[in-house]
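Dear colleagues,

For the upcoming journal club I promised to circulate an example of a predicted protein-ligand complex. I picked one with adenosine-5'-diphosphate because it came up in last month's discussion. The inputs are reproduced below in full, followed by the predicted structure.
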Amino acid sequence: MVSPQDLNDLKIQTLKHFWGHTAFRDSQEEIIDAVISGKDTVALLPTGGGKSLCFQLPALILEGTCLVVSPLLALMRDQVFQLKNNGIEAEYISSELDDFETEVIFGRCREGITKLLYVSPERLNNPTFLQNIQDIEISFIAVDEAHCISEWGQDFRPSYQNIKNFRTEHAGIACLALTATATPKVLQEITQKLDFREPKIFQKSFRRENIKIFTDKISDKYQRIHDLLRYSRNAGIIYTRTRKEAEELTRFLKNNRIDNVDFFHAGLTLKEKKQKQNHWVTSPDQVLISTNAFGMGIDKENVRFVIHFSSPASLENYYQEIGRAGRDGQESYAFLLWNEQELDNFDQLLKYQIPNKSEFTEVITYLYSLFQIAETDLPEKIFQLHIETLKRVSRCSTGKIKNILNFLHNQELIFVNSSKSLSSLEMKIEPYEIDLLPRKDAYFMELLLRNLSGISTHKVMFSEVNLSAKIGVDVLLLKERIRELQKSGHLEFIDGALSSIKFLKHRDDRSTAGKYWNLFQQIQKNKLQKWEEMKFYIRNQNYCKMRLILSYFGEKVSNDCGKCAVCEAKKGHSPTSITEEILNILGKQACTADEISIQLNHCQKEKILEHLILLLDAGKVKMLNFRTYALP
Ligand code: ADP
């Protein structure tokens, strides 16, 4: 039995030795103590609050292996990589590992060497895993991103519900749930669905003291962003709603001599994503313009600003995204650019994307029939997904189809891959049959067989660019030939540049029209409700922005933040000091009102314009053109 003093020493020494930190942050130590004492625990800490340490450190101190349930392979990979870098024995299991590699990992867990084993929630149902885990001593289960268990949230992952069964079958192992989404409703769902008994709940205030929040009503967003970036030499993120917006904004800024920007979205290849992300993480002043595909698991301390080019769909998303600014505690900014027209457009878009029941069931029926999947069937292969074809046959809009597919994907009925990836090829005839083909085809098949070993027996991933260079055939021609041979049934080809789909559950029309339609409807209702709340937040100019957010998360707060746009407006600057500061700035160089506003710590532009008009009247300032002001 370790004495309390010894345990305290051990915690601090472990913290210093493996992480190099000198002290715990608020609530970290209490959470760690609760986990060590074997209590079911919920840790609700804001993004950047230091959640990982709350399970990683007890995992080192306790006997056995901590099982970490995590929703994304990318997250697991990053964390395991970092842990190994710190000298900690951690592993993850995923389908990308072969049987031998997996067996080695299980062996290390059995011997008690591996202290943290990361798995996806689906893995908890896998027979091989369940078989192996029987011989492993599990210290506790850490459930990362625990809000994924919430049925009405946007990140809902049904397989998080496997955790409850898993615990029951393993003598109620203690469990730590961690999340940065903490509406009272989500908290209740977490404790209930994970079957927590008398849980210890630690909820750190979500208030962030170092983020200044602005919601700018503005029509020319391009100009505003250009002005914001022109004076900045800091790292930041700009969130856009669509991939196209991210690319166009990047192009505009580059064309206007702002070079430290790049775009990022889910449509890029893994390699491109990695390369762009690494560049951003290591650079002190790179700005990434991205859809919300970017951010989860990002650990960059010196992000000075997050700009929302368009509004996110909910306050949860918004707060999570702006929470990526100022993790180092330094003053940082969050700008949300909006106008009424766009809010209306998004209203329309949301409603337009919601199908009625017959559209919902028809799209799903067509989806199955396009691939000739009968009731109760579950094909194993991956198909090429052409949304245009589905649109044509179902006569439903792209928005509705995408919404339905997205829902099916989140419910794990299908897996849609829309990232650019390698293509795959498999021969559907026996090698001896090649000789029976017309000469031209036979020659081409031989060529493929020689250059892509394995295609005669299984699916082989390959890059068209590399193959075309190798065999000296133009890429387009190569693809055309492959497609021809696919049509005649000799090859099975999946184009990695297009979306693909894999069915994960047996076709079950009754469930589609019954339980899945009900769930779909509920999720849509929820989405609309969250958007209404978001709009209220954006438009409201009376309440402190931070306070509005915190009360949305169920925090009762009594004081304003004193630094958001609303608080600043309430405070008001002394008129003489603003006048003096404007004259000071113009004394250095001619500026637009936007530029003055930025240099004045984002003092409201309207206020600056009022002062400029008075200064113009008094002849203390002149106009160089209809935008730029200077001293006379
Ligand atoms: P979260 O998962 O809550 O978003 P992380 O666990 O990624 O947060 O931690 C955020 C950052 O804070 C990381 O860079 C981490 O190294 C740092 N951190 C965590 N705990 C401490 C501590 N006790 N002292 C100093 N830095 C810490």
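Two points we might discuss: Residues 21, 24-25, 28, 45, 47-53, 299, 327 surround adenosine-5'-diphosphate (CB under 6 Å). The mean pLDDT is 90.

See you all on Thursday,
B. R.
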